[in-house]
Write a structure and sequence with these properties.
CATH superfamily of the largest domain: Di-copper center containing domain from catechol oxidase
Helix content: 10-25%
Mean pLDDT: 80
CATH class of the largest domain: Mainly Alpha
Structural class: alpha+beta
Largest sheet: 4 strands, antiparallel
Shape: globular
Radius of gyration: 24 Å
Strand content: 15-25%
Number of strands: 13
């Protein structure tokens, strides 16, 4: 499963790969199609892409479609502009390096998207004017204030949603239209970033002309994902009854038979096939009582869906989509026999909530492991040898589920590394 990471944590090679993928999409003529789609969506009635409850799901689907166009396993980095706001000079953030997004200018003359190397859809060079008119990027406190709002959206379901009644609309606060009644108008959060970058990004219809748009909106999507994890009982609103923007209404341009997409379809980033680095919870040690500490689960092969089955033999555990736990070391490691195998099925809308790993009773001779799988709402099911020592259990923290695991053996003894991800809406 692609992991969207903070761009400041990526290597130079990773950042260059991002740039080259964008340039290739532009050369193929596909990049400008995203600009056109965004502009058309902005001018449609009823509004879905902006000033609407669909602002977040529409852009989640839009950015995911762009990401897939860059490559089936490509992971867009995100720009944490709140962290840059805390820098002595936000215009010197890593995003603006000459070998990544380049800097400001009318036209931009640095970086791979400079004049002569990058032409906007419709013609002309890329333009940026940082901090003009005078303003700062949103702060971490601004993000926290939005995350604290526990209502997704409210009537009248537009850019003035509840503005005079305590501004209880997470969507509108994150989008940036919502203001305290005593404030003079200034764009906030999402909108404020567009205005701060300025130039091409400050045009609502065609702002995707600047590749920074997609890194910005990946961060907006990350914040929504955080909000979903923090408020698991606060779903998308309106659920129904508001034509064109309700949870089951089709979003344009994904309104063609066979590719219909609604807000309900995009509530889970995990089911869409990606995850954010800030959401991954790793176990430092989740091994058998005789196993070595397993402190690196970064090698786990993330799967783009909920695990719906697990089968085990004497030395291998296989999920529905991949082999997540396997030992291929030299003998002696016991003899693979049929009574050391088994399987468990994870029903729809249920998840693996805990795993216990055991070493064999005669561990110093065989090292054969057994697993106990706990699916939500079901008793634990043991896979593997019946004669085992006391096991070590890893339970997914509240609000999460087990999405992947991998085994390691040392001196014929197994340990287990586990990854837990947020239990998102839509499961």
């Amino acid at each position: 499963m692609p992991i969207r990471r903070n761009l400041t944590t990526l290597s130079d090679d990773d950042l260059d790969a991002c740039v080259q993928a964008i340039l290739a999409l532009k050369a193929a003529g596909e990049y400008d199609e995203f600009v056109t789609a965004h502009a058309t969506a902005t001018m449609r009635t009823p509004q879905q892409a902006h000033m609407s409850p669909m602002f977040l799901p529409w852009h989640r689907q839009f950015v995911r479609a762009f990401e897939l166009a860059l490559g089936p396993s490509f992971a867009l980095p995100y720009w944490d502009w709140a962290a840059d706001q805390a820098l002595p000079d936000p215009t010197k953030g890593k995003i603006w390096d000459d070998d990544f997004m380049g800097g400001e200018g009318d036209p931009v003359t640095t970086g791979p998207f400079r004049q002569g190397q990058w032409t906007l859809a419709g013609g002309g060079p890329l333009v940026r004017a940082f901090g003009s008119p005078p303003m700062t990027l949103p702060s971490a406190a601004d993000v926290d204030a939005a995350l604290a709002v526990n209502v997704y959206d409210a009537p009248p379901w537009n850019d003035v949603a509840m503005a005079a009644m305590g501004y209880e609309s997470f969507r509108n606060q994150l989008e940036g239209w919502l203001l305290k009644p005593t404030q003079a108008f200034q764009p906030q959060l999402h909108n404020r970033v567009h205005v701060w970058v300025g130039g091409s990004m400050d045009n609502m219809e065609t702002s995707p002309n600047d590749p920074v748009f997609f890194l910005h909106h990946a961060n907006i999507d990350r914040i929504w994902s955080r909000w979903q994890a923090m408020h698991p009982t606060s779903g998308y609103l309106p659920a129904a009854g508001v034509p064109g923007v309700s949870a089951g209404d089709v979003m344009w341009p994904w309104d063609v038979a066979g590719s219909v997409v609604t807000p309900d379809d995009v509530l889970s980033t995990n089911l869409l096939g990606y995850v954010y680095d800030s959401e991954i919870q790793r176990s430092a040690t989740a091994g058998g009582p005789h196993g070595d500490a397993f402190d690196d689960s970064t090698t786990i092969e993330f799967i783009p869906a909920i695990i719906n089955s697990v089968s085990a033999t004497w030395n291998t555990v296989i999920t529905s989509l991949s082999t997540n736990y396997k030992y291929d070391g030299p003998a002696p490691h016991g003899t693979p026999v049929s009574d050391h195998s088994g399987s468990v099925t994870v029903p729809p809308h249920q998840t693996i909530q805990a795993i216990t790993v055991y070493t064999h009773k005669d561990h110093d001779k065989t090292g054969v492991a057994a697993l106990s799988i706990e699916v939500s709402g079901q008793p634990a099911q043991l896979l593997g040898p019946a004669q085992t020592t006391a096991g070590q259990r890893f339970a997914a923290p509240p609000g999460t589920y087990i999405a992947g695991f991998v085994g390691r053996a040392s001196n014929r003894i197994y340990s287990l590394g586990v990854v837990a991800l947020p239990m998102q809406q839509g499961f």
